[in-house]
Structure formats: structure tokens, C-alpha cells
Design brief:
Protein name (chain A): Asp-tRNA(Asn)/Glu-tRNA(Gln) amidotransferase subunit GatC
Radius of gyration of chain A: 22 Å
Low-confidence stretches of chain B: none
Mean pLDDT of chain B: 97
EC number (chain B): 6.3.5.7
Distance between the termini of chain A: 43 Å
Helix content of chain B: 25-40%
Number of helices of chain A: 3
CATH class of one domain in chain A: Mainly Alpha
CATH architecture of one domain in chain B: Alpha-Beta Complex
Largest sheet of chain B: 11 strands, mixed
Enzyme class (chain B): ligase
Keywords (chain B): Ligase
Oligomer: heterodimer
Protein name (chain B): Asp-tRNA(Asn)/Glu-tRNA(Gln) amidotransferase subunit GatA
Shape of chain B: globular
Distance between the termini of chain B: 9 Å
Chain lengths: ~100, ~475
């Protein structure tokens, strides 16, 4: 499956990555070579094989729905770029 | 002290030959003297280490000691360490002071070990040469023009150079075993879920696993005794009893059935690496093992499957780096989207971006089934290859890497770098454990013998590796660099 620059631009937008025109060209090149290598998978017959998501086929363990964490907001916000009154600051979203 | 194994150092601490403070100061001095040449550490926590060492000495005086009390270690900079910078080799986290300890770190602290600092690595563990670090490449102590392997390259180089007796690494596609092979040390990737991933910065969550890197299998057994086990904070960690990994180290190997996967001895394998591995297998035969050829027919598809699954998981895991809650934030964002896009573009390096883009693309509408679902089906076939092989043999053996350490700057094309991991990557897809042990030199650079076992066979792998290390001394050989800076 050939990769086009529009695919790279779409992925970059979905992944929230700023990519310049020059970089986009470079990524088309690199990603195309990676996907060419990946395309070898198409040669295998996987009819009737179910996908494997977890190497041990484990299922999600459940626990009682009880509060176990204490509030550590101040500690966690110490490494934030910008906070005020316990809130994370971002550019204005709603006018 | 630099040439002693962790096991020997523990015995010396116990007998009172030296204190943990003396031992810790010795290694800190070595780092100070030698690491400008290697770049194996991102952060050295000398002051904190000496405090920990004093506490360990006091605990010993009070009779409250375990085997590892007072032993200095290093941690790959992927493990969160409370109040210490945890960069994951990325500009994105250059300013990140972790607010909590990873479970592995918590357990090592509780066992009385001393952390000397955080080791260099490929950014977000994405790489096989340690050339993808924001903090610059690491040099291989066996040859300063060679790479140490990756992504746990700093941990491997530091141990090989005698800057620290052991270090923790992580392995998503070979990141413990390949650098251990390149640097001539012993490195174990446990079964997926054997060691908690809590506080280990996630790359590909269904593949990531932490493990020890040290001089010997015996050293790794002691470390596994501390770090293995269930953790309620990691829902994928396995609730299953942990054996004492040192108990079975000396079990005899007579009757051991070794399989040599024919696909691991094919095209692209360096002849000197092959002969070193075949010599090692002969040693096992002399110890009473039997050897036969086996087949892992889907080996060739492991790298293609990995480069769908790992980037897909990475693209999801790395979406947390948004410039809002922690990590790098761009200057003067005009709006929220600009903040996200520029913070991430500035914070991530090239290889990380490539994998995020690959993962986002293959998971996106119209491509998901052709790539992701297909790769997961192939993953099942790859795992089945191993399960079938373990019906007939106890362990598999082969090279950890097709070549010895390559030169810095030698692999500029990403795909040629990826192909280096041909013998390690399927192991993560299958979730089985693997260990690399030093098995000789090729052109002055170390060769690693990789030994694979079925799920939860760590004790057996350590036994098999230990018996080889009782019969040979490759694991005790040090690079000239380690002697020069002794």
C-alpha cells in the first residue's frame, strides 16, 4: 500500500505533531520504506487465526469499586508547566 | 572492586571487608573519572547514594540486612524515581522530576540497594544503538568507536566498564539482551508480566518488560529475587508465586534438551558470531546436554509484525505528552492545538516521531485491519512457533544479534537498524523470557549467546546460563577501558 504525503499529514494531525513541508517529505520517504518492510505480512495466510493482543491471553482483573487513592494533586502538579489554584493552564478554549 | 561480581561484592560487604559507603564512593569516583568518555549516565545521584549507603551500613550494624543491602546499582532513565529527573532519554522529559517511584525502584530500595543514578538510553526506548538519545550517544567500553547497543545502552556500557556492578534495563524488542551482548555482560528479559511495569515509562505496553543487567547469571538471579512478583498497580503483572532464583543455579544440565532454531543461523549471520555460538553449544554438550535443530517458521515475520504493533501502542502511550500536565511546553502557543503540536514537535526526536506517525497511520480508518489486525494474527503464529518448539526441547539457543557491536553512525537508514533485532524481537511478541550471556569475542567485540525458555522459565534460564559461566570465563573478561580507569 503506497504511502502518500496526505497520509503523513493526516497522521501528523491526528497525533498532534507539527510537521513542516520539508519534514513531511522526509517522513513519506522513511515511512514508505518501513511500510514496504511491514507489507511482507500480507504474504502469510492468517485465515482462521485469531488476533493475539496479550502474550499470556490474560483477561483484565477486576477489583471492588472502592476509592483507594488519596488526593496528591499538589505533588502531581509540581511538574506541570503552568498551574493556578490547582488548575492546569492552557490557552483560552472558550471565548 | 570494579572487577567483582555483585555476588562477590555482597559477600565482602557481609564479611566487613569494606563498607557500603566505601563501595559506593569507589564507584562514584569511577563514574566521575570515566563517564565523560562513555556518556553512560544522564544523571548521577552521588549525594543521595552516599546517604543511602550510610543507611545501609547502619542497617547492617543493627543486623537488619538482606543479601543486596548496600550494593550500588544504576537504573535506566525509564524508571520513575521520586524527586530525581526521569528523562527517558527525551527532551520532552528533560525537566521532569518524577513525583513517585516505580515499583521496581521501590523494591530495590526496600532491599537496601543504592542507586548511583540514571543511565542513558534511546529516547523512549526506541532504538538499537543508543544513538537516539537527546543526551547524545553512549560509547561501547570495548571499543569507543562502537555503539553499546540499545535501548538500554547506558546500563550495559556502565556495567561493562565497571562503573557499577549491575543495572536495571527494559526490553521491548531486545533492549536488554542486545546491549548486554554488545557490551559483554549478562542480561535477562523476564516473561511478560513477571516484573511490574508500574512507573516504567510505557513504550509498547504488551511487550515492555524490565530486567537485570549484570556480570553474571548469579547476579541476575539475586536481582530477580527482589524485582519479580505481582503488583496490584500493574494490571498486566502476573499473580503467580516467585521462586528463589538462586536455589536452582547449580542444578546439573545432564539430559537438558537444547534446540537450535535453523532460522537463527541463516543469511546475515556474521561467521565469527556463529562460530562463537556453536562453541558455546559444544560446552553445553560437554555438560551433558543434547542438541537438535528446530524450526521457528515465522521468524522472518517478527520484525514486520513488531513494527506495526509496537508503534501502534507507542502512538497511544505517547499521547500523554501533551505539554499540559508535565514535560516540555512550547513558547507562546496561540491556541490549544498549537500548544499540543509544537510542544510535541519540539519535545520528540526523529525516531520517536517516525514511530508515532507509523502507529497513528496503521491504526487509522481504512488501514487498521490490513495492518494492526493482521499483525496481531501473525503474532499468534509467532508465539505458536515457540510453544511448538518447547514441546520438543527445554531451551532454545542462538546468537543474540547477527553481528557484534557496529560502529557509531554506521546505520543511518531506520529499516537497516530495525533488522538488527531479528533474533530478539519475536521473544517479546511471544512474551517468553530470554537471556544473553557473553560467549566470546569477534574482532575484539563481544558476542552474546541468547538462551530462550518457555513462559516463566526464568529459573531454568538462569541455571543454564550459570552452568556455562561455571565452565567458561567470558563473563569475567573486562575491556581494557575498565582497567585503564580502575
Amino acid at each position: 500500500m503506497a504511502l502518500e504525503e496526505s497520509h503523513v499529514r493526516r497522521a501528523a494531525h491526528l497525533a498532534r505533531l507539527a510537521v513542516s513541508d520539508d519534514q513531511a517529505t522526509g517522513f513519506v520517504d522513511d515511512l514508505s520504506r518501513i511500510l514496504d518492510m511491514v507489507d511482507q505480512l500480507q504474504a502469510i495466510d492468517t485465515e482462521g487465526v485469531s488476533p493475539l493482543a496479550h502474550p499470556l491471553d490474560a483477561t483484565q482483573r477486576l477489583r471492588a469499586d472502592e476509592v483507594t487513592e488519596t488526593n496528591q494533586r499538589d505533588i502531581f502538579q509540581r511538574c506541570a508547566p503552568a498551574v493556578e489554584n490547582g488548575l492546569y493552564l492552557v490557552p483560552r478554549v472558550v471565548e | 572492586m570494579h572487577d567483582k561480581t555483585l555476588t562477590q561484592l555482597a559477600a565482602s560487604l557481609k564479611s566487613g571487608e569494606f563498607s557500603s559507603r566505601e563501595l559506593t564512593a569507589h564507584f562514584l569516583q569511577k563514574i566521575e573519572k570515566a563517564d565523560s568518555k562513555l556518556n553512560s549516565f544522564i544523571t548521577v545521584t552521588g549525594e543521595q547514594a552516599l546517604k543511602q549507603a550510610e543507611a545501609a551500613d547502619n542497617a547492617r550494624a543493627a543486623g537488619e540486612t538482606g543479601i543486596l543491602t548496600g550494593i550500588p546499582l544504576a537504573l535506566k532513565d525509564i524508571f520513575c524515581t521520586r524527586d530525581v529527573k526521569t528523562s527517558c532519554g527525551s527532551r520532552m522529559l528533560d525537566n521532569f522530576i518524577a513525583p513517585y517511584d516505580a515499583t521496581v525502584v521501590e523494591k530495590l530500595n526496600a532491599a537496601g540497594t543504592i542507586s548511583l543514578g540514571k543511565t542513558n538510553m534511546d529516547e523512549f526506548a526506541m532504538g538499537s544503538s543508543n544513538e537516539n538519545s537527546h543526551y547524545g550517544p553512549v560509547k561501547n567500553p570495548w571499543d569507543l568507536t562502537a555503539v553499546p547497543g540499545g535501548s538500554s545502552g547506558g546500563s550495559a556500557a556502565a556495567v561493562a566498564a565497571g562503573l557499577v556492578p549491575a543495572a536495571m534495563g527494559t526490553d521491548t524488542g531486545g533492549s536488554i539482551r542486545q546491549p548486554a551482548a554488545f557490551c559483554g555482560i549478562t542480561g535477562l528479559k523476564p516473561t511478560y508480566g513477571r516484573v511490574s511495569r508500574y512507573g516504567m515509562i510505557a513504550y509498547a505496553s504488551s511487550l515492555d518488560q524490565a530486567g537485570p543487567m549484570a556480570r553474571s547469571a548469579e547476579d541476575c538471579a539475586h536481582l530477580m529475587n527482589v524485582i519479580a512478583g505481582h503488583d496490584v498497580r500493574d494490571s498486566t503483572s502476573v499473580a503467580r508465586g516467585v521462586p528463589d532464583y538462586t536455589d536452582t543455579l547449580n542444578a546439573p544440565l545432564s539430559g537438558l534438551k537444547i534446540g537450535l532454531p535453523k532460522e537463527y543461523f541463516g543469511d546475515g549471520l556474521d561467521p565469527d558470531v556463529e562460530s562463537a555460538v556453536r562453541e558455546a553449544v559444544k560446552v553445553y554438550e560437554s555438560l551433558g546436554a543434547t542438541v537438535r535443530e528446530v524450526s521457528l517458521p515465522h521468524t522472518h515475520y517478527a520484525i514486520p509484525a513488531y513494527y506495526v504493533i509496537a508503534p501502534a501502542e507507542a502512538s497511544s502511550n505517547l499521547s500523554r505528552f501533551d505539554g499540559v500536565r508535565f514535560g516540555h511546553r512550547c513558547k507562546d502557543p496561540v491556541d490549544l492545538i498549537d500548544l499540543y503540536k509544537r510542544s510535541r514537535a519540539e519535545g520528540f526526536g526523529e525516531e520517536v516521531k517516525r514511530r508515532i506517525l507509523i502507529g497513528t497511520h496503521t491504526l487509522s480508518e481504512g488501514f487498521f485491519d490490513a495492518y494492526y489486525t493482521k499483525a496481531q494474527k501473525v503474532r499468534r503464529l509467532i508465539r505458536q512457533d515457540f510453544l511448538d518448539a518447547f514441546e520438543d526441547v527445554d531451551v532454545l539457543m542462538g546468537p543474540a544479534s547477527p553481528t557484534p557491536a557496529f560502529d557509531l553512525g554506521a546505520k543511518k537508514d531506520p529499516v537497516s537498524m530495525y533488522l538488527q533485532d531479528i533474533y530478539t524481537i519475536a521473544v517479546n511478541l511471544a512474551g517468553i523470557p530470554g537471556i544473553s550471556v557473553p560467549a566470546g569475542l569477534a574482532g575484539g567485540r563481544p558476542v552474546g549467546l541468547q538462551i530462550l525458555g518457555t513462559h516463566f522459565a526464568e529459573a531454568q534460564l538462569l541455571n543454564v546460563a550459570h552452568q556455562y559461566q561455571q565452565a567458561t570465563d567470558w563473563h569475567l573478561q573486562l575491556p581494557a577501558f575498565a582497567e585503564e580507569y580502575a
